[in-house]
Structure formats: structure tokens, C-alpha cells
Design brief:
The protein is of the alpha+beta class. The chain is built from eleven helices and 20 strands. The longest helix has about 30 residues, at about 105-135. About 40% of the residues are buried.
């Protein structure tokens, strides 16, 4: 079932209006897709916030704070356009005055940007219906497991199934063999009480809700019974189709350690991160082509006679970039793990 926690679209618009990166570059399709990986934390003057989670991007929305890894105070201007992240050994933030701090998981933002670009590609290639399918499945376990270049293909392979009120779609305890997206109609979710053995109503679902993803990924059994209470339409991805897409990635991923030798062999690096990420440190002589600009600028910047390695922060945006470039006829691979895994030289 699809129940991802969301922050408000008003906050998303507020971040964009303040020109805070990378929110200004995320499309409207991402507006309602920010989950609990993005937190707004008020701090009183003198108050300390200690976080053990590394890789969180720090943005000061108001006031000033002191970061233990920084020499001076941080404010909105100092964190608006450059990368300030929490460290691997824990980070302490101390408010020098009343302040409001935004903490956002950098890898999550990387993923969000990748899905937003997939949505733009889906709209171009399959229309609004394909976009709606994409937005419905992006938080599900099954589609998080798929190589990103296969997501739109999986959505196209989903088969429509008409269902009737009263029809039981899956039974608790049976083996999971498909993933379901409710396109129309409503359904009830029933679970058996482990002590009394009675079935109890625990949830209802409607358009855009999904179920069956956990059993599909793990090969386990259904943890609930789903029963339609209205006539409707389901979109179904069979387990076999899912397994085939999992086992046949379209984009070749290469380890970071292979990149220096490939550069010596005339491969060119294309860094698809945002400008502030690129300026924070990039592979020497890398071409900077942000993912959100790729479809508009690639043909004017890249020569199809060359060979390319796409690079981002975690490997997600670069996989999407490699997919889009491959669709345009480029010889391209993606660097696995992104700059987070890069151990070589980086220039600013």
C-alpha cells in the first residue's frame, strides 16, 4: 500500500521562492513528493542539535547557526547555493540566535531529481497517463528496487484488469506473484488478528494506491487481504516481468576505480549534478551538463563520436542521464556510486 509521508507543497513553494537550491530546479512534479527525509527544525538561541546521520544537506532558513565542521556562522546566504552537509562522525549545530534549519537527505534529493526527470521523459514519450502511473509507484518498494532506466518500461508492461465490487484480489498468507496499482475504484484491506483469528478492517484504498510490492520484492507471502468495494480497474505487473527487468539492466555501470583508465582512453566524463554540487568538487575536465537541462542541451554539447561516463552524487541521476543519452544514440556508461564513492582527484 502506498502511504508515503509528505511535507506540504506550501513549504516546497516557500523554498523555491527563497531561491534555495536544489528546490528551484526541481519540477512541479516533485512538489508533493518530498517525504520525511526533509525536516524543518526550529532552534532557540543557544540550543544544540546533534545528528548522527551523515549526508544531510543543511540549509539555514532564518537566523544563524554554527556547524562544528565550519569555521564561521552559517545563515541563509551561506547555505542557499552551496553544499553544506553533515559528516560521517556526527554533526552538531548550535543556534547563535533563534533559527530555523532545513535538513534534507542529499541522496534522497538525488533520487527525487532522477524521478522528476523520468516523469518529464514519461510525459514526452507516453503522455499524462504514464506520468500518473509513475507518480503513484515512486515510493513503493518494488519500483525502488528496479534499475531506474527500467521504470517507465515496467509501467508500460502493466496490464489492465477490470474488477468488480466484492472481488477479492489477494488473500493474506498466499504467495505474492504480482504488483497492483488501483487506477479506479476503491478497496478494503483486511488483516487477520493473530490472537483471535478474526479478520479486521485496517485500511481503505483508492485511485493511485498500490499494494503487493513487498511480497514481489521478497518472494514472501501476502500480509493482508485486499477486497474491492467498488467496480474499478487495476494495473498489474506480473512477478516474471518484474524479475526480468531486475536481471537485465540496460545501462552499464562501471566502478569509480575504472574511470581514470577510461579517461586515459579518451572517454569523457559528463557530470549531471547541480552547479553548486559541481563547484564543490568534480572530476578534472568533466563536462557539466545538469540532468534537468540534458534533454535540451545534450545535442549541442556532446559529440556522438565520443564515449561518455555520466556522474552524479550517488549514481541515480547518472543512470537516468545515461538512459536518456543512450536513447539519443550516444555511447555511454554510468559511474556506480557517484561522487560519494569517488576516491580520485577532484577539482573546484
Amino acid at each position: 500500500m502506498n502511504r508515503a509521508p509528505l511535507i506540504s507543497s506550501e513549504l516546497f513553494d516557500y523554498l523555491r521562492n527563497l531561491a534555495i537550491e536544489p528546490y528551484t530546479k526541481l519540477s512541479d512534479l516533485a512538489r508533493d513528493r518530498l517525504g520525511d527525509e526533509v525536516r524543518v527544525i526550529p532552534l532557540l538561541a543557544g540550543e544544540n542539535l546533534v545528528t548522527r546521520k551523515p549526508g544531510q544537506r543543511v540549509t539555514v532558513l532564518s537566523g544563524t547557526v554554527e556547524l562544528d565542521a565550519e569555521d564561521g556562522p552559517l545563515d541563509l546566504a551561506g547555505t542557499r547555493e552551496r553544499m553544506v552537509q553533515t559528516g560521517a562522525d556526527g554533526t552538531s549545530l548550535r543556534a547563535l540566535e533563534n533559527a530555523v534549519v532545513l535538513l534534507a537527505d542529499a541522496e534522497f534529493l538525488d533520487t527525487l531529481a532522477s524521478w522528476a526527470e523520468l516523469a518529464a521523459y514519461a510525459k514526452q514519450s507516453g503522455g499524462e497517463a504514464l506520468v500518473q502511473r509513475l507518480l503513484s509507484v515512486m515510493h513503493t518498494n518494488a519500483f525502488k528496487q528496479l534499475p531506474l532506466e527500467h521504470v517507465t518500461q515496467a509501467l508500460r508492461q502493466m496490464v489492465s484488469r477490470r474488477v468488480s465490487a466484492g472481488e477479492v484480489i489477494v488473500n493474506q498468507g498466499e504467495r505474492g506473484d504480482a504488483f497492483y496499482l488501483i487506477w479506479s475504484g476503491r478497496a478494503e484491506v483486511w488483516q487477520e488478528d493473530p490472537f483471535e483469528g478474526d479478520l479486521k478492517l485496517v485500511d481503505t484504498m483508492g485511485h493511485g494506491d498500490t499494494f503487493g510490492d513487498e511480497a514481489l520484492v521478497t518472494g514472501g507471502t501476502r500480509n493482508a487481504t485486499v477486497k474491492m468495494i467498488e467496480d474499478g480497474e487495476l494495473l498489474v505487473l506480473a512477478e516474471q516481468d518484474f524479475r526480468e527487468l531486475m536481471s537485465r539492466p540496460m545501462i552499464e555501470e562501471i566502478p569509480p576505480g575504472s574511470v581514470p583508465g577510461m579517461i586515459d582512453d579518451d572517454w569523457k566524463v559528463v557530470d549531471v549534478r547541480y552547479m553548486e554540487e559541481f563547484e564543490d568538487g568534480h572530476i578534472p575536465e568533466a563536462i557539466h551538463l545538469p540532468l534537468h537541462e540534458l534533454r535540451q542541451r545534450a545535442d549541442g554539447m556532446l559529440d556522438r563520436n565520443d564515449r561518455f561516463i555520466t556522474v552524479c552524487l550517488s549514481g541515480k541521476r547518472s543512470a537516468v542521464a545515461a538512459f536518456l543519452l543512450k536513447q539519443r544514440g550516444y555511447n555511454v556508461v554510468s559511474m556506480k556510486g557517484g561522487m560519494s564513492a569517488w576516491q580520485g582527484e577532484a577539482v573546484t
